[in-house]
Amino acid sequence: MISQTRDIVQKSLDALLEDESFLPEVKGETRKKAFTSLTSILSTPNHVHKSYLRIPLEDEKVVRIPAFRVQHNNALGPYKGGIRFHETVNEEEVVNLASLMTLKNALHDVPFGGGKGGIILNPREYTEKELHLIARKYVQYFSDVLGPDKDIPAPDMGSGEREMDWMMAEYKSIRPGMPYRGSFTGKSVVNGGSLGRREATGKGVFFTFRYLVHDFLREQKSLLTKTDNVFAKTALDFEDRPLTISVQGFGNVGSVAALEAHQSTHLQNKVVAVSDRNVTLFNSDGLDIPTLVEFTMKNKGDLPTKDDQLKEIGVKAEIRGREEVLYLDVDVLMLAALEDQVHKDNVEKVKARIIVEGANAPVTTEADKYLSDQGVIIIPDILANAGGVIVSYFEWLQGRETQFYTEEEVFNLLYDKMKTTMDTVLPLFFGDPFPLRQNCYIHSVMKLSTVLYRQGKLY
Ligand code: NAP
């Protein structure tokens, strides 16, 4: 997984080194040296912080829980990235996720660098009181390296506004009298969070898909019909026809993306399958997403796993194994659960022609190549799932100004920002033979390289 990000960054750097219209003032040996510096800067994090949080549990046992904060790069602004609460967290994963944040912020012109945190635990195995202590200890252990102008965490898998509220409160008590609202984003609205932050990533995920197959396709149809680009053919096949969608993961990102798809007035699409760590629910006529969202809200995030439960809430669906969501005969697959879900051993079973990466790195390098060779369009993580960090940026700004936007203003600002990025990368994507991921990486790497060069960091 980590090598995937590195490989694409390196490919982008190699292409830019050859392209003398990029940074034309840097020539010859100096150019080679500058690009060697870029490789080392972008392929390694600035800092990896690790601590063992000492937690007395309610049953009086004491545990030491490993926790990380990785600060990848801050050339564009303070480090920024979520804190994951999950049992599979490991250092390599956190480093890779931090580097994706650097690239994501560069791609969308968000003035933040890349960071990420992780705590190795299954939050379901801890009481609320214990989780509160874990969140506070995380801030105590890492308080020297965090702060509104240094490193700003946010929620990630397994964490949410409750944890961010706890963490901000702890930060505030450790640094009395200092600005604190911008120290964490993804907080509850009452604690200075932004309206729309919770829905931002899922909404952005659906927006990137809708924009590509609807708005952009309509506006730029002549561009797409003129080229013999294989991805243009795939996109044109999506024009003005009913579409089926399946969504892996029904948490913060997946459930909102599914709801957006269900409610979309732009597209004739139906969500035929959703899944979580227990099940896939399937209905070829489309699932009742609002009722399923309501069910998960009352049941600790879990989808129904039994026919009785489905009957009780009036949802018609077949219960299938959790992996089946990946292999259904659908037009679109939205991946909103974990990394590495589509890989070399299962990629041949995937039938969707468009894949949208709501999760970070859910498609491995081998699978990505296989799918791209077949003309499958993959809307990559750094493009599709940036809604969260974009609205986090709005939250950070609102916290500084103590002026708050309406929900409508937040979503309009979000869509404007994502539209600007899509309008930058899509014409290039349909004009050359590279997958969209490669286009996005080149764009990010160009921005980072230029900034690092102008900051005098490439020697
Ligand atoms: P979340 O609320 O914790 O939801 C994760 C979902 O994935 C849950 O439905 C979970 O099911 C499901 N899941 C877990 N393990 C699974 C498995 N093995 N197979 C199928 N489903 C599985 O997390 P989230 O915030 O939506 O984040 C999802 C992904 O999006 C992560 O990769 C995260 O890094 C990425 N992301 C999130 C944001 C954000 O703002 N939240 C921003 C950018 C990227 P259970 O409920 O049964 O555990």
Task: Please characterize this protein's 3D structure.
The longest helix is centred in the last third of the chain and has 25 residues, at 407-431. The protein is globular, with a radius of gyration of 22 Å. The strands form two sheets. Strands 9-8-7-6-10-11-12 form a seven-stranded mixed beta sheet, sandwiched between helices. Strands 1-2-4-3-5 form a five-stranded mixed beta sheet. The protein folds into three domains: 12-43 and 434-459, no CATH class; 46-192, Rossmann fold; 198-379, Rossmann fold, CATH 3.40.50.720. It has helices spanning 2-18, 28-43, 91-107, 128-142, 161-174, 197-219, 221-226, 230-236, 252-263, 289-298, 307-313, 365-373, 381-384, 387-401, 407-431, 436-454; strands spanning 47-56, 62-73, 79-86, 114-120, 151-155, 243-248, 269-275, 280-282, 318-320, 332-335, 354-357, 377-379. It contains 16 helices and twelve strands. With 459 residues, the protein is of the alpha/beta class. Helix 1 (2-18) packs antiparallel against helix 2 (28-43), helix 3 packs across helix 16 and helix 14 (387-401) packs across helix 15. The model has no long low-confidence stretch (mean pLDDT 95). The protein starts with a helix and ends in a 5-residue tail after the last helix. Helix content is 47%, strand content 16%. Residues 155-158, 201, 248-254, 275-278, 301-302, 322, 336-338, 358-360, 385, 388 line the site of NADP nicotinamide-adenine-dinucleotide phosphate (NAP).
